[in-house]
Structures are given as C-alpha cells and as structure tokens.
Amino acid sequence: MSRNVTVRTAQRTLEVRWGNEVQTVPIDWLWEGWLPRGVVAVLDGDPGLGKSSLALDLIARITTGREFPKGELGTPNSELGTAVRDPRCCVVVALEDPIDKVVKPRLEAAGADVGWVAFLGGVREEGPDGQVADLLQLPRDLDLIVNLCRQVRPALLVIDPLFAVLGYDKRGRFIKANDDQSVRQLLARLKTLAEETETTILLIRHLNKASSGTALKRGSGTIAISGLARAALIVGRDPDDESKRVLAMVKSNFGIEPPSWRYALRGAGATSRVEWLGECELKPDDLVQSISAEKRASARLLEAQDFLETTLEDGAKPWEMLVEQAAAEGITERTLRRARVEMRLEKFRWRNDVSWRLPFHLQPYNEP
User: Fold this and answer.
1) In 198-311, which residue ranges form alpha helices assigned H by DSSP?
2) Is residue 285 a contact partner of residue 214, using CB atoms and an 8 Å limit?
3) Whole-number pLDDT of residue 363
C-alpha cells in the first residue's frame, strides 16, 4: 500500500497519519484513576452534597502539593497528606457562592494555599462613558479565560456551576443548556484549551429532574456534555448512611473505572471541609437510585401533608378514619404518620374518642 497519499479540495487538505508514525504516550494524571491532565471532566450531583467542597479539596491539594486520596478498597485515607510534588495554581469560576464569605473560607478550611488560586467573576467592557461592569458569560468571554490559562498554566480550572456562566456568544446568540449543537461547540473549544495548556477543566452540574435513568443521563442539560467529557463523576448520598456522601466514576475514557470513595462534610469553624473515609463498592447507578427514591419519598410526604391539611380543615377526625381515607388516595399509613409528625398534629380527646386536629384548631368538627 502506498504511504504517500494526499487528499485535498481547492482550499483544504486532509491530514493523514499512519499508525506507525504516531508515537504513543502514557496518560498524565492529575488525580490517578480519576482526573487526567488536559481534559474536560464533569461532576454531577444534587445540591447540598458537597460538590463544591469536593472540588475545593482537590484545589487545596494541588496548591500545596499534597497527595490525593488513594488506597485499596476499604482503606481510609482522610488525612490532608504531605507534599509530594510542586504546588500548582488553580482557577475558580464561582458565580453562585460569595468568594469572600463562602469560597475562600472553604479553601482555607481545606488547607489550600490561596495565593495559588485565581477567582474569576465579572468582566469590564469599554463603553462610551468608560468601563462598564458585566457578568462573565460563555462562550462570549471564553477568549479571556483562554488568555489567562495561557499565561498561568493552571493545573485545574473549576466552573461552578456550568449553567450559571452559560450566556451569549460574540454574535449575541444565547446558548441553551439543552441545545446539543451549541453546547458541543463550547465544549470543543474547552477541549482545545485543556489540551493546549494541559489544564484539567472540571464542570460542575446539578442533576436533572428525571426520577429514573442511568447515572450517565442524570446530569442537567444535553447528554452531549457527558458524551464529550473524557471523565464523568457523580456524587450522591450513601444509601447505607445519610450522613455520608459517595463519589463515583460514571465514565472514563482512560481505562478501568476506579472504586468509589466515601466522604463526609466536617465542620471547620464557620464553614466545612471534606473528610475522605475510604473506598467502597457502591456504583454510580446505586447513587442515582438512592437519589430517585429520596425524591419520591419526599413527594409522597408532601402529598400526605396536603391530604391532612385538606381533610382536617373542618375539624378533628379519628385516626382510623384518616388512614382509611388516605388509603383510598394511595397514601400509606406509614407516610401518613410521618406527615402527622412533620405537621405537629394535636391529639384531641372528646369523651371516649381520640381524634387528631391541625395545630391551634380549637373545636372538633363534631363538637355539640
């Protein structure tokens, strides 16, 4: 077979590289098994599970040269660790939490060297009357981030959350999170930036409102985000212990998926930090099912509360009657009892009968 081939049109030439001409190189890891250098990755999870704190814990390790969590299954490694490499700088785009009141205190609690952290917020634009402050928006302002990364070469760029920074492009067109083509174009540019500067770009997202589906499909926005990311991570509550969280690998384009990690959020003064508790055998879909079950239970509880509010608005009723009427609407007695506790219903005794009523309701409905 001839090795000298040229494929071109009037203005474009196709690049052709034969396999024996390609030099293979080993994977350069930021966090071995989890985050390679120079790629785009996503971190998904519901609010309140510590996604931001987890990302800041990684930044603390990078800016001080400390090691990342590692160990065999079941072996905890919650210590902050000792320096094993030179500190590197990181860039944080945090548009939801105040930098001075929330983000920086969390970084300090995690042991970060904040002098190695650059926070990105707004931008200033030259106008007829001087400079005007504006919000940072992607992809319109991506060139500014590209120029910064070329200068400081950060090890990690965190965008938290991704959809808070999505906005207009240079032509004034608004980018929608569910627009597959627009998001693909943005992520393609982020991919180029990551490869050029050897920066790992971590995009943080909330989960969508779906009550079913695999972990890969639970991130908000178009599925193209998870598809184009080279690593997709998810956090969820530990099904066996609600006080703990679990970080799991949804997909990785660089080899075998590592075991999941348990962690907890520990108080640190007025803020909190991540404590790593060791590897575990939970899978990403286990976390999604746990999340879905939690949401369904919450919805059933609200339904039971609405039922009690409506049924008792005219006065107290016997518990047996409430259970029977609730069952007719598909509400179990167990859920009804939870709603009774949440609403702080009052037990009302009239002669030899016991009824339940809404708080501060003075007269039962059958009062003579």
Assistant:
1) 224-228, 284-311
2) yes
3) 45
Coil/strand/helix, residue 349: strand
Lowest mean pLDDT among 68-77, 236-245, 321-330, 346-355: 68-77
User: Is the CB of residue 294 less than 8 Å from the CB of residue 239?
Assistant: no
Nearest to 149 by CA among 188, 84, 183, 198: 198
Q: What angle do CA 45, 138, 185 make, to 5 degrees?
A: 85
Amino acid (1-letter code) at residue 305: Q
Which residue ranges make up each domain of the chain?
A: 28-280, 291-357
Under 8 Å between Cβ of 159 and 95: no
Radius of gyration of the chain measured on its C-alpha atoms: 27
Cα distance between residue 286 and residue 268, in whole Å: 30
Report pLDDT for 365.
43
CA distance 213 to 11: 46
Confidence band, pLDDT 50/70/90 cuts, at residue 85: confident
> What pTM value is reported for the model?
0.76
Burial call 107-131: b when 16+ CB within 10 Å, e when fewer: bbbbbbbbebbbebeeeeeeeeeee
Q: What is the mean pLDDT of the chain?
A: 87
- Rounded to 5 degrees, φ, ψ at 133 are -75, 140
For residues 260 and 283, the answer to whether their CB atoms sit within 8 Å is yes
The partner residues of 14 in beta bridges, in order of sequence, read 7
28-280: CATH topology: Rossmann fold (3.40.50)
The CA–CA distances, whole Å, from 368 to 1, 253, 320, 351, 365 equal: 102, 74, 21, 12, 9
Measure the N-to-C terminal CA separation of the chain; round to a whole number of Å.
102
In single-letter form, the type of residue at position 200 comes to: T
Contact yes or no for 249/260 (Cβ under 8 A): yes
Distance separating alpha carbons of residues 277 and 75, to the nearest angstrom: 8
Tokens representing 225 are 């985000």
Strands laid side by side in the 346-350 sheet: 317-318, 353-357, 346-350
135: Cα separation from own chain's centroid: 22
The Cα 55–Cα 52 span in angstroms is 5
